[in-house]
Write a structure and sequence with these properties.
The structure holds two protein chains of two kinds. By secondary structure, chain A is of the alpha/beta class. Chain A is built from twelve helices and twelve strands. Chain A is about 40% helix and about 20% strand. Chain A is globular. Chain B is of the alpha/beta class. The chains are: A alpha/beta, B alpha/beta. Chains A and B meet through helix 3 and helix 5 of A and helix 6 and helix 7 of B.
Chain lengths: ~325, ~250
């Protein structure tokens, strides 16, 4: 995803001389071509992320469109108050492009995991939060972001994510994409790095005879309430799937909408528990442990649907 | 204004009055007519709590009407106790959370350099706020990028909220700190117009380096019973004190 981000941005630079790319000394080799072509618009800010946010704000005050790149813990968690005041309060065109959403940097440990970022960014006034689900969505998101007014947090995985869409989807900020609509039993709402695994999950469920709709809810804020309400009308059960703590992320956002419309069906958040991982392992291993593999998700969904309706989830 | 609103920070406002007057009436290429002009000089009050002084100077400079001033610090009013960005009012950046102003100034200064636009960026900081580590991130970055269009002015009144700077976290050797971060430093008496004018005329002090002006000031300057007193960081004058202060200032 990150290579798609840089390539797309590099292309956009040809026609837009206001684009700036700032990095907190991360992205080894990633920016070589960008840097060579646009040395005046690339700044390595060093390991000083709070200054990066302030400088981005200053550049944006001066009419620049600024993309700040780093790993999510350093870009988002470390800089929260600077993002709040310098960027959000002034409603500036600053894009925070964070890599390593969820457990993508599994073996690097908890300091490099990102399971709370969507929750805190979603709470900020003026902030738009997008977690593209495949490389197509990344490039479209970056294309659209150039003209977007106000701050954005763009949550990426890492690299080598498979495509989910067959071709370039119709990507609009704040509008979910129905990947396929094959029945009304189960609706799966997925965001970001979980989109591909959720697609495999839905294929498993289809094989078991369930009718399934898969939606990419790439934009977590503003949430596509119209689409969620429509899904609620048509489906007996809804599951949100995210590589983020179930506290405050996509699932919470969807739950807020469903509870206010008195959704009568089954709703369950699938994601990470609100705990620091105490496992050591790569992303796949951690996903196994937390039940985020397609097989485990499919089994859990079936168990919930078949269980008595008054059983606690 | 502070008396009417029962607001804090009178001492921190009085220590920067001469600096602001010098900037707005002698130095800054900014006026109500060019407040959105791309070429205007930028001024950031990083010590946002000193804004009553800024509001008063902006009013005298024609940015704020007396009606707007009257709306300071009251319900349904116009001006908060920390400034909110509004170019037509002459307020470039919203501040109040200490330590943020310098990095925003750095961003503006880089943009100026890249666009070959000759504007200058002035940031007025308090001494206490330079205890924040990220101020020094900005300081390091500014000199590395040779931002000689950036000027930091430090209101060195030597008192912060809970005590004397020296007793809280000693900043000395202060000039040396800025110098070792690659800034060209001048020290002035921050209440002496001749000294302030003279140093502002020499900006940038050296080509290729950001300029720092350490202004030695007195908290609560101008009112005998407020001068150099910790109490007047937060205390708001009562009626008697207000009348006495006004007599002294007149």
């Amino acid at each position: 995803m990150r290579d798609v981000f840089v390539k797309t941005l590099e292309k956009l630079c040809q026609s837009d001389s206001d684009i700036f790319l700032l990095t907190g000394d991360l992205g080894f080799k990633l920016f070589d071509s960008f840097r060579e072509k646009y040395p005046d618009r690339f700044l390595n800010m060093g390991i000083a992320e709070t200054n990066m946010i302030g400088v981005a704000a200053g550049l944006s005050f001066s009419g620049k469109k600024v993309y700040c790149y780093s790993m999510i813990p350093f870009l988002i968690m470390r800089c929260f108050e600077h993002i709040r005041i310098d960027v959000c309060y002034h409603n500036l065109d600053v894009r925070l492009v964070g890599v390593g959403g969820g457990l993508v940097y599994g073996l690097e440990g908890v300091t490099h995991h990102a399971i709370e970022d969507v929750a805190i960014m979603r709470s900020l006034p003026n902030m738009t939060v997008v977690a593209p689900g495949d490389p197509y969505e990344v490039s479209e998101c970056i294309n659209v972001s150039v003209g977007h007014k106000g701050p954005m947090f763009i949550r990426l995985g890492r690299t080598g994510e498979p495509q989910v869409h067959r071709s370039v989807p119709d990507f609009k900020i704040g509008k979910g994409i129905v990947v396929f609509n094959k029945g009304n039993d189960i609706c799966l709402l997925a965001s970001g790095t979980m989109l591909y695994k959720t697609k495999i999950t839905s294929e498993l469920l289809l094989k078991k005879g369930f009718g399934v709709t898969l939606v990419s809810l790439h934009t977590i804020k503003p949430l596509d309430e119209v689409l969620i309400k429509d899904c609620a009308k048509k489906h007996r059960s809804i599951f949100s799937v995210e590589e983020h703590s179930i506290v405050g992320g996509l699932g919470s956002a969807v739950g807020e909408v469903l509870s206010e419309i008195r959704y009568g069906g089954l709703f369950k958040r699938i994601g990470l528990p609100n705990e620091f991982s105490h496992y050591v392992g790569r992303t796949e291993y951690l996903h196994q442990k937390y039940g985020l593999t397609p097989q485990k998700m499919a089994n859990n969904i079936i168990k919930l649907i078949k269980g008595p309706s008054n059983t606690p989830l | 204004m502070i008396y009417m609103a029962k607001a804090p920070h009178i001492g921190s406002s009085f220590s920067i009055v001469e600096i602001l007057v010098a900037l707005y009436f002698k130095c800054l290429r900014i006026s109500p007519d060019n407040c959105r002009d791309k070429n205007r000089d930028r001024f950031i009050l990083s010590k946002g709590h000193g804004c009553p002084a800024l509001y008063a100077v902006l009013a005298h400079r024609g940015f704020l009407s007396s009606n707007i001033l009257k709306g300071f610090g009251c319900n349904g009013g116009t001006l908060e106790e920390h400034p909110t960005s509004d170019l037509t009012k002459g307020i470039e950046v919203s501040t109040g959370s200490l330590g943020h102003g310098l990095s925003i100034g750095v961003g503006m200064a880089i943009a100026g350099k890249r666009d070959n636009n000759p504007y200058r960026v002035f940031v007025l900081l308090s001494d206490g706020e330079t205890e924040a580590g990220f101020v020094w991130e900005s300081a390091m970055f500014a000199s590395h990028h040779k931002l000689d269009n950036l000027i930091a002015i430090i209101d060195y009144n030597k008192i912060q909220a809970l005590g004397r700077i020296k007793e809280v976290i000693d900043l000395e050797p202060y000039s040396e700190k800025w110098r070792s971060f690659g800034w060209e430093v001048r020290e002035v008496d921050g209440h002496n117009f001749a000294q302030i004018f003279s140093v502002l005329e020499k900006i940038p002090f050296r080509q290729g380096r950001p300029s720092a002006i350490i202004a030695h000031t007195v908290k609560g300057k101008g009112v005998s019973f407020m001068e150099d007193k910790l109490l007047w960081h937060y205390r708001c004058p009562d009626e008697k004190e207000y009348l006495r202060a006004i007599r002294e200032l007149e």
